[in-house]
Design goal:
Strand content of chain A: 15-25%
Number of helices of chain A: 12
CATH topology of the largest domain in chain A: D-Maltodextrin-Binding Protein, domain 2
Oligomer: heterodimer
Structural class of chain B: mainly alpha
Shape of chain B: globular
Radius of gyration of chain A: 21 Å
Order of helices and strands of chain B: HHHHHHHHEEHHHHHHHHHHHH
Structural class of chain A: alpha/beta
Largest sheet of chain B: 2 strands, antiparallel
C-alpha cells in the first residue's frame, strides 16, 4: 500500500516537473542508459556497444552501456520493463529473453511490458554434418532423418533455448525426430561435433565456418528463410518449402512500455539511422551477421509471432512451464 | 626450424613500440584485476574489450592476452596475504600460501609464486608451439562420456587435498555437489532450487562463494581471536626464499608446469582443476605430507606454476580449432571476430602476424610480469603491517565491491556474506572447505556430461567404457582408486600391527 502511495506521489511530482510535448522536443536532455542483458564480451554486447557509439552523434547525447547479465537475459529484460518510461533507460536485447525464455521461466514481463523500438538484423543457425554423412543437399538430409527417426543426434545450445526450439520447429513440420544433445554453447557443440560425438552441429555460424573451409564439416540447412553468402552450399528454409518456420538469432532495441510515443518515434529514427552507418554495417559484416533493419511495428509483430510459434514448439517437446 | 623463423617475425610484431605498450598495459591491468578479489581475468578482459575495437587484431589480442596472463600472476597475492582468492585459479594457494604468510614467509611465498608463474608460463608457450595442434586433435576425442570419467578421476585425486578426516571430506564433497545443482537444468530447461529467482537460474556465483568460504570466513575467524597477531614488518632478507625453500619449490615448479599444461585442455574449468590436481600431486609425492596445510612450500609452488601453464594451454583450442574452451579465451575470440579474424585451422596461414605476434607477446608478457611483480612483493608484504582492525573491514569492503561489480547483483552479495558465515562455522568445526568448492565446480559439469553421454548413447551405460579417451581415463581412475584403497588398507594393517 505504502509502495503504491509512494509511486503515486512520485508520479504526480514527475508529471508536474515535465510537460508532455516539451519532453519529446528536449529529449534526450541527459545521457541514456542502454541495458544489455548479456555479459560484456559476447556478440550482443559487442553490437550494443557499436550501435551505442553510432547513435551518440545522432541523438547528441552519451549512451552508456550497462551490462546486466543473468538468467539468459531475463534479468536485464525485467529491469528494462520495470524502468521509468522516460526514454532514458533502454534495452539492447537478443530475441531469447523475449520469445524463448518466457516459455520455460517465470518472467515478470510480457510483450505488453515493453515497447519494441527497432531491430538491426539477425544471424542464422545452421545444421551441419560430417563430410562423409550420406546426404549432399538439404533435401537429402531431410529424407535421411525422416527415414531414421531417433537415430541421429544434434548438438545445440541448451534444451528450451532458441537454437533448439528453432530446430525442433522445423523437425516438427517435417515430422522428423532427431535427438537433441545440449551443450554449453556453440563452441562446445562444435568441439563435440568435430570429435564425432554427435551427428549434427546445431548452432550459430562463426564457430563452424573455419571447419567448413578446412573440409571438416558440410553445412546443409539454415534456420533462416533465405540463404547465407558465407555458406553457399547450405539451403535456407525457403528451399524446402518451410520459409514460414524461420527462427533466427536477432537483436533489437526495446524501451519500457508507456514511454511517450514521441520519444519512441525519435529513438526509432535515430537507431535506424545508426544501423545504416558504414561503421556499423562493417561491424555486422565482420561478425557474420545479416543486416535487416526493422522499425517498431515490424519488430513488435516479429516478437509476437515468434513468441507464439516457439510456445507451440515448447509445449510439444515438453519444456513449457506455463501450465504448471 | 621453420616455425622459429615465424616466431622471429612474431617478435618483430610484438616488439613494435605500440604493441609493447599494449602488452605492458595489459599485464599491468591484469595484475590489478588479479590482485583485486572478485574481478578476475574474465571481467578484466571484458572491461577493456571495447578499447580493442580501434586497435588492429594483433594489438587487440596482445593486450587481452596480457590481461589474462597478468591476472594469473596477481591472483596469488591476496590468497597468500589474506587467504582471499584473487580469482578462481588461486583458491588452492590460499591453503598453504596463507599459512606461510602467518609464519612470516609471505615474501618468500610471493617470490616463489612469481618465479613459478614465469616458468610455468614459459613452458606452456613452448608446449603450445611444439605440440599444440597434436593436443587439439587429441582433445576432440574427449566426448561427454570421457569427460565424465575425467571429472570423476579429478574428484578422486583431489579428495586427497583435504586435511580433514575422510568422513568430513565426503560431507563437504556432497554439500558442494548439492550446491552445484542450483540453477537452470540444461537438459530439461527446469529451474532447480532457484525459488523463483531469475538471478539464481545461472547457479550460485562461484566467485562470491569462494571468496566467502575462504576470505570472509578468515576475517570472521580473526575477529574471534582475542589478540589478533600482527605480523612483523619483513626485512628484505626475509622476502627471499631460503635455500631449503628453493630446494622444495624447484621440483614442484617443474611438476606444476606439466600438470598445468595438460589440464589446460580440460574445457570450462581448466584453471581450477589444474591447480587442485597440482596441489594433490605435490602432497602425494612429498616426503612430508603432514606439512601440507601448515605452510608447505611445494603447496604454493605447484599450483601457482600450474595456473600459468594452464593459461598457455588454454589458448590451444582457440588458436588451433577456433573454439574457446574457457570463458576467458571466448573474449579473445570475440576480439578477433570484431576484426573479422576467424581463428581455426587456417589462422596460422591466413593471419600469421596475429598468430605469431600473440605467441611472441606471451613470451614477452611473462618477462614483463615477472619484472613487474617482484618489486611489488615488498609493497604488498608491508600491507601486512596494517593492524587487523583496519585491514579486515577494508578488505571486506573491497570483497563486497569486487563481487558486486561482476554482475551488479545484490544476490551475489548475499551469497558472499552467507558463504562467509557458513565457512566460519564449518572451519570452527574443522571442516576443510576446499573439497566443497572443487565439488561445486566439478559437480555441475560432471552431471551434464553424464547425462549428455547417456542421451547420445540412448541410455546405454556401456558408453562410459567405449572410445579410446574414456578407456584411458578409466584406467587412470582404476589405478588411482586402487592405489588409494591399497594405501588405506596398508595403513590399517600397520596401525593394527603397531597396536600391541
Amino acid at each position: 500500500m505504502r509502495g503504491i502511495l509512494r509511486g503515486v506521489v512520485a508520479g504526480v511530482l514527475a508529471a508536474g516537473l515535465m510537460t508532455g510535448p516539451a519532453v519529446a522536443q528536449d529529449y534526450p536532455a541527459r545521457p541514456v542508459t542502454l541495458i544489455v542483458p548479456a555479459p560484456p564480451g559476447g556478440g550482443t554486447d559487442v553490437f550494443a556497444r557499436q550501435i551505442a557509439e553510432a547513435v551518440e552523434p545522432i541523438l547528441g547525447q552519451k549512451v552508456i552501456v550497462d551490462n546486466r547479465a543473468g538468467g539468459g537475459g531475463t534479468v536485464g529484460t525485467t529491469l528494462v520493463s520495470a524502468a521509468q518510461p522516460d526514454g532514458y533507460t533502454l534495452g539492447f536485447v537478443w530475441n531469447s529473453p523475449l520469445t524463448t525464455s518466457p516459455h520455460s521461466l517465470t518472467v515478470a514481463y510480457t510483450p505488453d511490458s515493453y515497447a519494441p523500438v527497432m531491430s538491426i538484423g539477425y544471424s542464422s543457425y545452421v545444421l551441419c554434418a560430417a563430410p562423409d554423412f550420406p546426404a549432399a543437399t538439404a533435401k537429402e538430409l531431410v529424407e535421411r532423418i525422416k527415414a531414421e527417426p531417433g537415430k541421429y543426434t544434434y548438438g545445440n545450445d541448451g534444451i528450451g533455448g532458441t537454437m533448439q526450439l528453432a530446430a525442433e520447429r522445423v523437425f516438427a513440420k517435417l515430422g522428423a525426430k532427431v535427438r537433441p544433445v545440449p551443450f554449453g554453447g556453440a563452441g562446445e557443440t562444435a568441439r563435440n561435433f568435430l570429435g564425432g560425438h554427435v551427428t549434427f552441429y546445431g548452432g550459430s555460424l562463426p564457430p563452424i565456418l573455419p571447419h567448413v573451409a578446412a573440409g571438416k564439416a558440410k553445412c546443409l540447412l539454415l534456420t533462416s528463410a533465405g540463404r547465407n553468402p558465407a555458406l553457399p552450399q547450405a539451403s535456407g528454409l525457403d528451399d524446402i518449402g518451410l520459409g514460414a518456420e524461420e527462427t533466427v538469432l536477432w537483436w533489437g532495441l526495446i524501451a519500457p512500455a508507456r514511454t511517450p510515443p514521441a520519444v519512441l518515434a525519435k529513438l526509432e529514427k535515430a537507431f535506424m539511422a545508426a544501423a545504416e552507418t558504414d561503421r556499423f554495417k562493417d561491424a555486422m559484416d565482420k561478425q557474420g551477421a545479416t543486416r535487416r533493419v526493422l522499425g517498431a511495428r515490424e519488430t513488435g509483430a516479429l516478437i509476437r509471432s515468434e513468441l507464439a510459434a516457439l510456445g507451440t514448439v515448447a509445449k510439444a517437446i515438453g519444456v513449457e512451464r506455463k501450465a504448471q | 626450424m621453420e616455425s622459429l623463423g615465424y616466431l622471429m617475425d612474431g617478435f618483430a610484431v610484438a616488439f613494435t613500440g605500440r604493441n609493447l605498450l599494449l602488452c605492458f598495459v595489459g599485464c599491468l591491468w591484469g595484475t590489478a584485476v588479479g590482485v583485486l578479489p572478485g574481478l578476475g581475468p574474465l571481467a578484466g578482459m571484458a572491461l577493456l574489450l571495447p578499447l580493442t575495437f580501434k586497435l588492429d587484431p594483433a594489438g587487440a589480442v596482445i593486450m587481452l592476452a596480457g590481461i589474462f596472463n597478468g591476472a594469473m600472476y596477481g591472483g596469488s597475492t591476496t590468497s597468500i596475504l589474506m587467504r582471499i582468492p584473487g580469482e578462481a585459479a588461486s583458491v588452492v594457494t590460499c591453503i598453504d600460501g596463507y599459512e606461510m604468510a602467518k609464519r612470516g614467509r609471505a615474501g618468500a611465498a610471493l617470490t616463489i609464486a612469481a618465479v613459478g608463474s614465469f616458468v610455468g608460463g614459459t613452458v606452456s608457450i613452448v608446449g603450445l608451439m611444439a605440440v599444440g595442434p597434436l593436443l587439439a586433435d587429441a582433445m576432440l576425442t574427449v566426448g561427454p562420456a570421457a569427460e565424465f570419467v575425467l571429472m570423476l578421476t579429478a574428484l578422486l585425486v583431489v579428495s586427497a587435498v583435504s586435511s580433514s578426516p575422510p568422513v568430513k571430506t565426503l560431507a563437504m564433497i556432497v554439500l558442494g555437489l548439492a550446491l552445484g545443482t542450483v540453477g537452470l537444468d540444461q537438459l530439461t530447461a527446469w529451474p532447480r532450487f532457484t525459488f523463483g529467482s531469475l538471478d539464481l537460474t545461472d547457479g550460485i556465483n562461484f566467485v562470491a562463494l569462494s571468496i566467502g568460504l575462504f576470505g570472509v570466513s578468515e576475517i570472521l575467524l580473526n575477529l574471534d581471536e582475542a589478540a589478533p597477531q600482527v605480523p612483523r614488518a619483513p626485512r628484505l632478507r626475509e622476502m627471499l626464499p631460503t635455500r631449503q625453500e628453493i630446494r622444495e619449490a624447484a621440483p614442484a615448479v617443474l611438476r606444476g608446469s606439466g600438470v598445468g599444461f595438460l589440464f589446460g585442455l580440460v574445457p570450462g574449468v581448466s584453471h581450477i582443476i589444474s591447480t587442485f590436481v597440482a596441489y594433490a600431486i605435490e602432497k602425494k609425492v612429498s616426503k612430508t605430507p603432514e606439512k601440507f596445510g601448515h605452510g608447505a612450500v611445494a603447496g604454493v609452488a605447484g599450483p601457482e606454476t600450474a595456473n600459468n601453464a594452464t593459461t598457455g594451454a588454454s589458448m590451444i583450442p582457440l588458436l588451433v580449432l577456433g573454439i574457446p574452451a574457457i570463458p576467458a579465451t571466448a573474449i579473445l575470440l570475440s576480439a578477433l571476430l570484431i576484426h573479422g579474424v576467424q581463428p581455426g585451422p587456417l589462422l596460422m596461414s591466413e593471419h600469421p602476424q596475429v598468430f605469431w605476434g600473440l605467441i611472441a607477446s606471451l613470451y614477452l608478457g611473462n618477462a614483463i610480469l615477472v619484472v613487474l611483480n617482484l618489486p611489488l612483493i615488498g609493497i604488498f608484504v608491508s600491507l601486512l603491517r596494517t593492524p587487523m582492525g583496519v585491514l579486515a573491514p577494508l578488505v571486506l569492503v573491497i570483497c563486497l565491491i569486487g563481487v558486486y561489480s561482476l554482475k551488479g547483483s545484490p544476490l551475489d552479495l548475499a551469497i558472499l556474506v552467507g558463504a562467509g558465515v557458513v565457512g566460519y562455522v564449518l572451519r570452527k568445526f574443522s571442516y576443510d572447505v576446499a573439497p566443497l568448492l572443487l565439488a561445486f565446480v566439478l559437480g555441475d559439469r560432471m552431471e551434464l556430461s553424464f547425462r549428455r553421454a547417456l542421451t547420445i548413447s540412448d541410455g546405454d551405460y556401456l558408453v562410459f567404457v567405449q572410445g579410446p579417451a574414456a578407456r584411458v581415463f578409466l584406467a587412470v581412475l582404476v589405478l588411482i582408486g586402487g592405489l588409494q584403497l591399497a594405501a588405506m588398507l596398508l595403513g590399517w594393517r600397520r596401525r593394527g600391527a603397531a597396536a600391541p
